[in-house]
Predict the structure.
Amino acid sequence: MSRWILLPAVFVSLTMTGCDPQINIAGAYFPAWLACTLGGLILFWGLHLVFLKVGLLPYLIPLPLVYGALITSLTCILWLLFFAVK
């Protein structure tokens, strides 16, 4: 890798360490990813109920892998909607 490509990457990684979004809840600051994870879990719970109602649960194999991917996807979508899109 060229030194001219590596140098800006190192500079950006060192200067952007304090730029994570934080949410103020009752005077305490929480990281935004924590709120997005909580929202992703709530959305997942709703989708789980829909899966049960529709009868889709037996077709979701392997269940822990599918549910883990679904929670991760919903969390990332919430992050993109609320913090990445300006």
The radius of gyration is 18 Å.
